[in-house]
């Protein structure tokens, strides 16, 4: 070899494959303002639509008078439920098996519900029109408190369900009841509680919040009357699902529906579902024959599309006196708002909440979830988490701390004592899951050593004594969270959306010059798929990532996929990429064998090409194989080099992590300071450490927001009082703590590249760490559990209630 | 509604247009001028996605009327690259330090950071955090945005940027 021959390390580095901190492809356009988001789409003759919304949380709609609105210059049409009934679209099916009003049909059931859709030549004229639509309401008593939903005299919210004693998920117990979902062995669990040395019971609430990506939900619908084709540009996390939903409910042939999700300004679960705006814009385009744009404003986003959480979890743990858990019992009251529009896989009315046994070896458990209607916005989306997994992680992580307090045991020690052991994987949980892999003890010990946990506990003990002596007004809390997630929905045996199995897909086409394109069923909203997907292909087939273009979001060109949410892209689509790449590689090997005149078994893959075993000089690069694929393939072989894979995962993946939050709280003001936050994540194989770290930073910041103040709150009359960024806590760079990240690597045994997914772990694990820190700080003053969000006022109130402030 | 004629300089070029008195500057820039890099995130001056530079100040263009910008000199994200079309130190910093994810807040962040570095070429971390506190990012948690601005600050001063140790 001469000096010019690149070393193996250089050849490998040139690929920028898996494990490389590859800089993002997307950033070139985004940093120059050249992204293409939905509101940037401008079609000739495009109109704008906007909603008249209800000021009442619960009222009968007596009359809608649009006559004055239609006189406003620029206003072309006012669409109401009556208009939609002519095309059978006044109601739409939800992903959860319920139906939802597209526009108010006789009644309104939550404040800011969509009542009429005004279509005008521009967004200002549409707004003028809205102000001239006169709606006559007859207010009805609002139902705000979910605990009163099933009172015998509770108002009837859903008159359309009158007489229906069962819904999509079984029997209904009351006119405001949606479903009851139970999992686990009740008898065995009751028996464990009957003989337990120690028991704890607490109602742990996870308040209503909202994903609130910086770009709101929006679309442009354009119906071509001549061709009978509907094109929809939209902020869709799952474009193919939207296409199928439109085909099913609008009765349009699916091949004539083109769904395009361009660049998306954050999703976090907000952009999975189908909203009235999409339906109204589509109908308006069909009615007017012009493209129609609908862009949600921030108030509409916060108050009408897709809240998250609102789980009220009564949690009990049974344990031995030395701290071994023997049983878990949870009852959840789930506030779903006015319509059950949860975006869960169809058979899972409470998502994967049955991951609630967490990282611990519970011999038995029982779970019951009751979903109820209230006069609040519909939703129940997975806000940066797999379906209801963040609720489950919060529930068990808070409860373990409460148990530790009761046992007078260190919460870290209690966790170490009850972790599922490495040799127990694959582990079958009491509530039905098969955990793929994990090494919890190693991760926990690494966290404790790196943070100096023992020294922090000692400092806390000293500070508590100083507080009791009156020498300080500051209290210190250590919040541990050791979460296990369940992501990568999902295997067709138990996951579908509207009957479509939750596989995902990748199609790779290699071009003659050694470049290629990969088309995906997923849709990035900031995760950097254009960068990371190419890295997987680079490592798998030995073509530099820079030579692979990744395309997502166009249902005409992309293979069918179920989209991006629930940390499913890497576990499902990431696997599809590897499988498609391996098909390419297998064909490439045959071509190389033919060209090198050897049997294909005599070849071995070597970074960026195939080499004859034992004859290192006989080598053919993948680049040359790509060329050969288009001119000299073996006799009988089809030319070309492309492959498609639809990957149905055999199991979910189970990322986990060990987090620690160190917090100081001034009892006189309630002002807290996050002194330190350490996050160790194990997401299996790491594709791009830079992007993983970015995902962890972002997820922790959202967790910080949720735990420390972010809430969608209703007053007792059903007014939503957190409808703008003035009231809805959005941390800025000033409030946001500094994040320390770390990792262990326990690959998933069933995933082709061992990756588990990471985007949502920090949100799932972060919230309990913050809340446990606050609760840990106050515990020595006699409290067991303080509800989130832990804003300054609530901290001060807690201190006051505990007698620490006079 | 009667329209008003406005003229202003945007990214170095003289522009003009007919606008209603109520037309917001951000809509004039995005829709009349077709420069869609400037984004709208909240319409209430909280999020900063619509930040543009007007006569040497960072301004949220979602709550300013186009007529108020009559005669002013405006720079948007489209005017941030170097004269030769290469990425500016700030744009490069955002990419190198992974200071963006979905990209929706990025134009406002870069325009704001540009003015911050003009006012304070070597800001401390706290000064950066305070300096961008009018701009919300939902994806990054700000840590890498701070690094991106430190990177640009170093590069503009001709110093090699060394990441602060974790």
From TrEMBL, chain A:
Domain Aldehyde oxidase/xanthine dehydrogenase a/b hammerhead as annotated: residue spans: 32-141
Organism listed in the record: Bradyrhizobium huanghuaihaiense
InterPro entries noted in UniProt: Ald_Oxase/Xan_DH_a/b (IPR000674), Ald_Oxase/Xan_DH_a/b_sf (IPR036856), Ald_Oxase/xanthine_DH-like (IPR016208), AldOxase/xan_DH_MoCoBD1 (IPR008274), AldOxase/xan_DH_MoCoBD2 (IPR046867), AldOxase/xan_DH_Mopterin-bd_sf (IPR037165), CO_Mo_DH_lsu (IPR012780)
Enzyme Commission numbers on file: 1.2.5.3
Source organism superkingdom: Bacteria
Keyword Cell membrane among record annotations: no
One example GO MF annotation: molybdenum ion binding
Keywords (A to Z) from UniProt: Copper, Metal-binding, Molybdenum, Oxidoreductase
Name of the protein this chain belongs to: Carbon monoxide dehydrogenase large chain
Functional description taken from the UniProt entry: Catalyzes the oxidation of carbon monoxide to carbon dioxide.
Lineage: Bacteria, Pseudomonadati, Pseudomonadota, Alphaproteobacteria, Hyphomicrobiales
Cofactor: Mo-molybdopterin cytosine dinucleotide; Cu(+)
UniProtKB/TrEMBL annotation, chain B:
PROSITE patterns: 2FE2S_FER_2
GO MF: 2 iron, 2 sulfur cluster binding; metal ion binding; oxidoreductase activity
Keywords tagged on the record: 2Fe-2S, Iron, Iron-sulfur, Metal-binding, Oxidoreductase
InterPro entries xref list: 2Fe-2S-bd, 2Fe-2S-bd_dom_sf, 2Fe-2S_ferredoxin-like_sf, 2Fe-2S_ferredoxin-type, Beta-grasp_dom_sf, Diverse_Oxidoreductases
Domain 2Fe-2S ferredoxin-type: 4-80
Stated name of the protein: Carbon-monoxide dehydrogenase small subunit
